[in-house]
Structure formats: C-alpha cells, structure tokens
Sequence to fold (657 residues):
Amino acid sequence: MGAIELENIHKSFGAVDVIKDVSLNIPEGELTVFVGPSGCGKSTLLRLISGLDQPTSGRILIDGQDVTRRSAADRGLAMVFQSYALYPHMSVRQNMAFGLENTRMPRAEIASRIEEAARLLEIDPLLDRRPGQLSGGQRQRVAIGRAIVREPTAFLLDEPLSNLDAELRGTMRAELAALHGRLGKTMIYVTHDQIEAMTLADRIVVLRGGVVEQVDTPLNLFNAPANRFVAGFIGAPKMNFLPRPDGRTMGIRPQHLRLGEGGLPVTVDMAENLGAETLIHGRSEDGHTLLAMVPGQVTPERGDVLSLQYDEADAHYFGEDGLRQ
Amino acid sequence: MSNGGATHYLTAPLRWLARAADVPLRAWQRMTGQGGMIALFLLPNMAIFSIFVLIPLGMNALYSTTGGVEFFLADRPYVGGEHYARLMDCENYLEPRSCRDDMFWIAVWNTARFVIFQVGVMTLVAMITALILNRAIPAKAFWRAVFFFPVLLSPVVVGLIWRWILQRQGLANLAMFEMGLEPVNWLTDRFWAFFAAVGVSVWAHMGFYTLILLAGLQAIPRDLYEAAEMDGTPPFRVFYRITLPLLMPNLLVVLVLALIRAVQIFDEAYVLTGGGPGTSTMFMTQYIYESGFANLLRNPGLAAAASILMALVLVVLTLCQLWLSRRAGGDR
Fold:
C-alpha cells in the first residue's frame, strides 16, 4: 500500500505554469525526495499529491486508484508541514487526537495510538504540554507523531527540518531515516538541501522550473548526472565546469581533483583548510573559476600556480544542449 | 532644486529652534538630571490631560457633593452624599417606579438592555463580516472600506441619516410602501425605537470591531487550516476548535471595548429618537446631560453624582479590558 503515480501533471497559477507535464512513479515503501532550487515547484507538487491543491490537468493515482478529484482527507495521506502546523491552544495529546476524532474513532483506540506513537518518538513525557512549551526538535517529533497516529498509506513531508539548527537537523535526519525503516511506509520528502536528499532518499527527483530533470538513486545522480543542471546541483562543493574547444563542457567534481605534475595549471585565489582536506579556490588558464578539494592540509599562497590532476573516468561531458554525452 | 535642498530650507526654522533651546535644555538637565528631562517632555501632555480630564474629574467629584442650581462651585452649598443617597434610594432596583429618582433607574435599565443587545448583535455581525472578508472574495478591499466607512462618520451625522431613513415618511417606509407593506413607526413605537437605536449603533460601530477581528483571523497561520483539511475536519469543527479559540484574545478585547462604548451611548441615539418615545430610549448619558443642563429644574450635583457612578462602571470594564489584553499578550 502507498504506491503513488503522477500522470502528466500540469499546474498553472493564472498565466504562470508552475508544474509542467510531470509524470512519476513512486513505489510502495520508498522514501522519495523532491529536491531543487527555490521556485522549482517541489512544494507545489507535494501539495498536488496531498490534495491541498488541484492540478490543472493530469492524474494522480494512489495504489492504482485515481484520486485526482478526491479531497485531501480522502486520500489516506498525512502531511508534516514546514512550520509543523501544530494547534497552539491544544496539548500535544489533543493535537495528535484531533484528526482521529474527526473519524469518530473510539476514545480507547485514539489513546492507544497516541501512546504508541509517543513511545516510538520518545515524546511520552510531553503529551500534556502545549506546542509553545516545546523546543523546535520536540515540535518536529509531535508533528511527525500527529501524522503517524493516522496510519496513513504515505507520509508527505514539506521541508520538515528547515526550521531546526544545523546540529539538530543532523540528528533528526538520522531519526527520520530510522523511522522510515521501522514504519516501512511510502514517504515523499521535499527539501532544497541536497545533503538531506542524498542522505535520506531511496530515490531523488530533481526538479527545475516545474520540470523533472532526473529521477534516480542518490549515488547514480552523483555519478551519472543526466545533464549539467543536475551535475551542478547534486554534490557539495559544486562540480567544476570547463568549456572544451569542441563546444562541449567538461564537468569534474572538486573531490576528483588532486595535486600532481602535468595536470591542469590553476592559479590559487584562496585556500580553505578544513583539517582533513583543503578546499582550494582558483582559476584555470582561460580564467574559469575552479574548486579543488584535496586531501590533507595544503597551504598554497594566493597567486601560486598548482597543477591539478584527475582521472578521465571521473570527468563528465555535456553537449551544447546541456545533456550528458 | 534637489529634494535634499528643499528639505534643508523647510527644516531651517526647526534647526534654529533647536539651537536656541540647546543652552537652556542643557542647563535644565545639569540641574535636574535625566528625571527632570523626562518630566519636561511629559509636561505639555500632562498639562493638557490635567486641564481636560483630571481637573474636570476632580471638580465633578466635588460638584456631586454640592446642591442647588448655581454653576459656580463657590456658590453651591455642601450636601455630602445626599445625591448618591437619592440615586440609590430604591425599594426595588428592578422596578424604577419604586425608586426616588425613577428616571435614573429607567436610564440604567435602558442602558443595560441596550448594552446586552447592541454588544451581542454587534459582536456577532462583526464576527460574521470578518469571516466573510477573510475569505477570497472579489473586491475584498472595497468591501472592507464599505464596512469601515460608517466608523468615520460623526455620530450626529449617523443619527441624522438614520432619522431621515426611519422617520414616519422616511426612506424605509417609502420602500415598504412600494413593496406593498404596511409602514412601521420606527421611531415613535417604543419597541421599534429601542431596536432602531440598537441597529443604528451597530451599523455605526461595527466596522471598527470587524477590523480587529479580521486582523485576528489573518494572524491565524494558513497551515493550521491545511492541517485540519488533511485531517478531514468539517468546517463547523474547524471554526469552533481552531478559529474561535485562536481568535479569543481579539474577541475578548472586542467584547470589552464594545461594552465600554455601549455604556456611553448618547449622541447618535439622542439625535435619532431624543430618548423617546416616552423614556424608552433614554440612556444614562442622556439622563446625566438632561439632569445637569437641559431640564427646567436642572441639578448639576445630581448629574455629577450619576456620572461618578457611571465612571465607576467604566473603570471596572476598563480594568477587565486591561487584564484581558495582558493575558492575551502573555499567551502569545
């Protein structure tokens, strides 16, 4: 249960096309991450799946059933909002019970579901507190708990970690991955943070301007990006792009460059020593900026000319149309 | 000439004033310290507040302990709490005719009835209007302005407009006549006159309270409604489990402000009905005004005592409002 299919989804707001002919197949139990820059349509796509917005055209199927015109509540999905959307005047327990009460579920059943979810998320001591009395991380857990108690066919998570500080984000990311493993439910996760996407996803959907650029596993996206945009978006630091005389562009990741004789001559602008590795900012002979992440501690001076080598197998080539060749 | 140049010339007198005041101000600060400067800057406002509020309030309290018809305090004999005793002398407070000053108690009960109806109806209508204006309706800004417009009118203008509409041969009866209905004595029938006063007051003040409620509604995050939508919450449950509790701080402020204002009802009702027919629309403020200034046997002391009693009611309501505002502020 929880397979989601999108068929030729199109969404316009007035004259602006936000989602353009998107077709996707999200298998049951998979954690799929929608990633892309701001305004790429990833949150809109999630809202279309949730039923909070209606597509202009196209079909949405859940477990083979067309739910395109069904209300959000009738799709059997649960959503975790970026702002958590917890009711501030209700206790954690009331927040978690609210949706279940709508279904006229017996009180005992509601109580048992809340207890179970609270235990799973370790929020049992917080059940009688109000959201205002909780930290960001605790609120996040409550928001997830509210989704879990509904026992949905799939979870939709809209940038759920973006309001947390970096350290907590890392912890919650690991917890979410573990939670997905335990629940085994389909999850669609929206983020603009490609590290979140890479670490959490079974598959990543890269979006740009309302169009799906590539759908693949995190490593496949990293190793074989379908086009120049994906190559530049996935991976940190960003891939270097160097134009070739034949009109193509060569892409090489900073991690794949190393110091060695007879390589690319690069004039150093700045070096950032991170301890285990050094990030060198420089310029190639024809003036293109270049980043190299070399192992160990290197301390070049500004203006030094270094020689950077790479393996041809690590180079990516993109045609004038931006597609991988 | 550049904008900066124009500003330079326009602010020249201010700069001259600042330079002229600089020396005495610095001397004052040296003598009195920071406290003295604060007092100096507060002085103009406090002087105006004293002249128009504090001193009249004190004089009013003094007047309430004096008798006679003279206006100058020095000419008035001291009578102690006689006026208060007269106002409170009642066999049965619910039956004004059993009271020594029956008109005062008629006015008290008329005001109480008015407050209950006016505040109740107005809060309800303001809430419904705010809920509608908070939705994605066409020409939202226009409708917002339409509902707020009467607030900008002078109460006397409001009274005159509605008297013109509701009088025996007014617009309302003309419209009813055109529709084949019997005309109604809106302003000369005891029942209709009271509710005309309530209705006109609601019309005149509703826009202000609608705006407060609308601001409260707009402060409720959209995500909460979307979360409720995902949960399949029926609209009425959304209203009473989400909207109403989150709007409660604004609603309480509206209720108390409307109460305070309704207790002071005078001008539009006085212009509309003149307190009539009989005494059916005579409210507290009208009683005070007529006792003190308009009646043939004017009694400024009695009017002052009545206004002190009314002020006590208003103080209690104002304290309620302050307490509720602070509590709402604390909740946030």
